[in-house]
Amino acid sequence: MPRFGSRDVLLLLSSLVLSSIPVGYLQVVLPLFLNRAGLEPGLIGVLYSVSGLVTAGLVAFSGVLADRFGRRQFLLWGTALPICSYGIFALTTSPSWLLLASVIGGVGLANGAAGAMTAASFDALLAEHTPPRQRTAIFAVSQALWSLALAAGSLAAGLPELLRQLNPRLGDLDAYRPPFMIIILLAVVATLVLLPLRELTTSAGSARAPRPAAAPADRGTNQGSAAAPADPDLKQRHGWWPRRSLGVIVRYSAALGMFGLGVYAGCLVLLTRESSKSDCAALADLQPASPVWPNGG
After folding, report:
1. Which residues have a Cβ under 8 Å from the Cβ of 224 and sit 6 or more positions away?
2. Residue of 186, 197, 55, 41 lying closest to 119 (CA atoms)
3. CA–CA separation, 245 and 228 (whole Å)
4. Which of these, 16, 31, 18, lies nearest to 157 by C-alpha position?
5. pLDDT tens string 29-84
6. CA Rg value for the chain
7. Quick check: is 295 in a domain?
8. DSSP code of residue 229
9. Chain centroid to CA 239
10. Structural contact between residues 84 and 104, judged by C-beta atoms closer than 8 angstroms
11. 50: how many CB neighbours lie within 10 A of its CB?
12. CB 85 within 8 A of CB 128
């Protein structure tokens, strides 16, 4: 069993659980809420597709920028951004605002820009604070906690219906408002938990400590053989584009993009089915009524 002696590991895992419960809740509730608010299935699919495509497009750049300017900052912003989306869900059902929420985060597992920022920094920070011998076990625990948090959020999907039964005066949409406030609170706490987090690895964009002056070489020694060793960081610096992890980033981005398109395709099928039903109903109304013959006529 791994020992969670590191305070930073506990902070990361606690924030992961707190921020994943709203994701599991919205996976079940958000499509139902938007459908009851009168949105077409095609538009709901667009929201999920935009979220997946934004994450797929930003994950590569966010990873590079996180390495340069600090993974802790990216993790903080990625955890805090869904608070804006949850507030939008609680206050309005305007399609333009919902589209903004899908770009920011909070829609689907991809989670928009917030998902790209957290995906680029969480695993790296967790590996940074974990001893090599315990790394596999800690990552397994992290995945288990993430799955359990999603399941707990999904189980809470019946909370709006429970509130409606306890208070029949609540409307169909008003019963969803209090749970939205709860997930906003969970996201705020998940962000505050990360504030004491430390980042051990110095980012490439931060100022480097001055290199100590080299000791003067002895006159009797060969200066060519006593040359200072090359800076190991120079071998690692190849510009902003990630060369070693390019294939992994491309596959991850493609998977997220296909996930968003798959959700949109499923909602598009529902939209086509609903439109075909309405067309059939309209054609039935246009058809003349069959004549009623009198008896014996």
Report:
1. none
2. 55
3. 30
4. 31
5. 999 999 988 888 888 999 999 998 998 888 878 878 888 888 899 999 999 999 99
6. 27
7. no
8. P
9. 27
10. yes
11. 22
12. no
Residue 226 lies in a domain: no
Does 28 have pLDDT greater than 50?
A: yes
In whole angstroms, give the CA distance from residue 24 to residue 155.
Answer: 8
What is the domain extent for residue 33? 7-200+246-284
DSSP labels, 207-268: PPPPPPPPPPPPTTS-TTTTPPPPPHHHHH---SS-STTHHHHHHHHHHHHHHHHHHHHHHH
Q: How many CB atoms lie within 10 A of CB 34?
A: 20
Closest by Cα among 198, 145, 124, 120 to 2: 145
DSSP state of 158: G
Read off the CATH number of the domain in which 102 is found.
1.20.1250.20
What tokens appear for 234 in the block?
Answer: 């120079």
Widest Cα–Cα separation across the chain: 132
**Which residues 6+ apart lie within 8 Å of 27 measured at CB?**
108, 109, 150, 153, 154
Is residue 215 a part of any domain in this protein? no
The pTM for the full model equals 0.69
DSSP3 helix / strand / coil % (the chain, rounded to 5) = 70, 0, 30
Which tens digits make up the pLDDT trace of 71-110?
899 999 999 999 999 999 999 989 899 999 999 988 888 8
Distance CA(64)–CA(74), nearest Å, equals 11
* Contacts with 250 (C-beta within 8 Å, 6 or more apart), sequence order: 60
Q: How many domains does the chain have?
A: 1
Within a domain: 228:
no
Q: How far is CA 197 from CA 14, 49, 177, in A?
A: 12, 33, 32
